Amino acid sequence: MSFSLQVSAGDLVQEGSRLTIVYGTDKLKQDLTLWMCERYGIDRFHPVMGSCFQNYIGGVITSHTRAMVQSEAQRVLSNYQKVQYMGLRANPTLYSMSELLWSINAIRVTVSYDSVSVLVAVSNGEQEPTSITINQGT
Predict the structure, then answer these.
(1) Which end of the chain is more exposed for a tag (fewer CB within 10 A), N or C?
(2) How many CB atoms lie within 10 A of CB 42?
């Protein structure tokens, strides 16, 4: 089982004099949120991490824009699954079933001139459904 420090609005969450830790389904949701909100290619140690959602804000919205945003969300989720798979192959005890991205159940996209909203519904390795919503705008 792995864990992460809890992040809220870009800051670490503190309870008293300690930093809060997330694990299980909460860690999965936090990881997916961070991967989706991170700008693609900005992390030199994880060059495939992040999304290009910002590229669809402020441009011409065509009949293909929604499909391209949905495809981008699918790409990010697939990359996340690949990272988890490589981690599991290297160390089978690295993750608990509750933090594994088992299936992608739905990706719903709303695009307007100044914002992109993506709802991602997934299930973890224990078949528990969960979802996150990513809103990016100007």
Answers:
(1) C
(2) 10
Tell me the residue length of the chain: 138
Nearest to 21 by CA among 39, 31, 6: 6
Q: Which tens digit of pLDDT belongs to each residue from 107-125?
A: 999 998 899 999 999 999 9
Question: How far, CA to CA in Å, does 98 sit from each of 3, 24, 69, 135?
Answer: 12, 5, 27, 25
Residue 67's nearest CA partner among 34, 108, 122 is 108
Query: Which tokens is 10 given?
Result: 């870009």
34: nearest Cα among 22, 16, 20, 17: 22
78-94: pLDDT as tens digits: 999 999 999 999 998 98
Asked whether the whole model's pTM tops 0.85, one would answer yes
- How many angstroms separate the CA atoms of 108 and 51, rounded? 16
Backbone dihedral angles phi then psi of residue 91, each to the nearest 5 degrees: -150, 95
